[in-house]
Amino acid sequence: MEHLRQSVTDFIRDGERRLSPATILYYRSALAAFLDYCETQGVQLVSGVTRPLIRAYAAQLDGTMAPGGAHARLRALRVFVNWLVREELLSGNPLPHHLFPKVPQPELAVITEGDMAALLTQAATTRRPLRDRAMLLTLFDTGLRASELCGLHLDHLLPDSTLYVRLGKGAKDRRVPISKPTRRALQAYIQKERPDSESTQLFLSRGAQPLTASGLLQHLVDLCAAAGLPHKTPHAFRRGFAVSFIKHGADLVRLRDVLGHTSIAMSARYAVMSSEDLKELHQTASPVQHMAGRKKGGR
C-alpha cells in the first residue's frame, strides 16, 4: 500500500527535474496543507484519496480561504492527483467535475507606454541610470520573468539582437528578440557603467554583486514611487509586453514562443486587453470602419 506522504515526496522529486524552484515551492506548500487535512481525517494511504475526501477538503477551503487562495491549493491538488493516476497509484481519478470555486477576474495591472515614459524619466536620475534604463527596456521589450532577467549573463546578449534565456520556467531555453533601442541601451550600460566584477551576470547591484529577483522587485517599488505610479511588479511588465505585442499585430503563437509558454491558452491569459485598449484596437480593426474607408476611397 502506498503511503500518501511518500507519494507527495516522490511527486516533488519528479517535478524538480523540470519545474522552476518557485513552482516546486508552490506545490510543497499547497500539498503540505492537503496532507495536514488528510491526517485530521485519518487518511494516510493513497487509496484514501477519494472523491468524498476531496469534496470535503474543497468545502473546508471554501469556508476558510479567499476564492483565489482556495483555487490555488486545489490546482496543485489536481496536478498531484493526475500524477497519481499516471503513475498507476490510483486506479481511477477521484477529482470531482466541479471542483474549483469561482474567482473574480480583476483587470490585472499592466505597464503602459505612458508608465514606461514616466519610469524612464525617473531612471535617468538614479545612481545607475544606464543600468536602470536598460533593465526597464529589457523587461518591457521581452516580457522576461524576474528570474530570467536576473539570470542573464554578458554572453547571453547575442550578435543577432536576441537574448539567450537559459532554463526559464519549465527548464526550457529560448532565444528572445530585442529591439534596436533596447540593444543600444544594454550596450551603453555594459560599456559605460557596468562595474568590473568577477560575476558574468549582466545586471549588477550595489557592490558589483549579481542583481537578485527580490532586489529587482524592491528597485521597481522605489522607481514607481518616485515616478508617482502605483507599484508595478515584473509581471506587470510581462503582461504589458503581451498586450502591446498583440495590439501591434503579433499573433498568439509568436507570443507563446517569446514568453516561453507551453500553450497558447496560457499566453492568451497574459494578453487580456483593457477596455481602452479594445476600443483603440476596434477603431483600426473594425470591419464596418474598413467598409466606410473603402466607400470614401471609391468616391
From TrEMBL:
Q: What is the lineage of its organism?
A: Bacteria, Thermotogati, Deinococcota, Deinococci, Deinococcales
Q: What protein name applies here?
A: Integrase
* GO BP, sorted A to Z: DNA integration; DNA recombination
Q: Does the keyword DNA-binding apply?
A: yes
* Source domain of life: Bacteria
Recorded hits in Pfam families, A to Z, give: Phage_int_SAM_1, Phage_integrase
According to the entry, every stretch annotated as the Core-binding (CB) domain falls at: 1-85
Q: Which GO terms describe its molecular function?
A: DNA binding
What keywords are annotated for this sequence in UniProt? DNA integration, DNA recombination, DNA-binding
Limits of the Tyr recombinase domain: 106-283
Key word Chaperone present: no
Q: What InterPro entries is this protein classified in?
A: CB, DNA_brk_join_enz, Integrase-like_cat_sf, Integrase_catalytic, Integrase_recombinase_N, Integrase_SAM-like_N, Tyrosine_recombinase_XerCD
Tell me what organism the protein belongs to.
Deinococcus koreensis
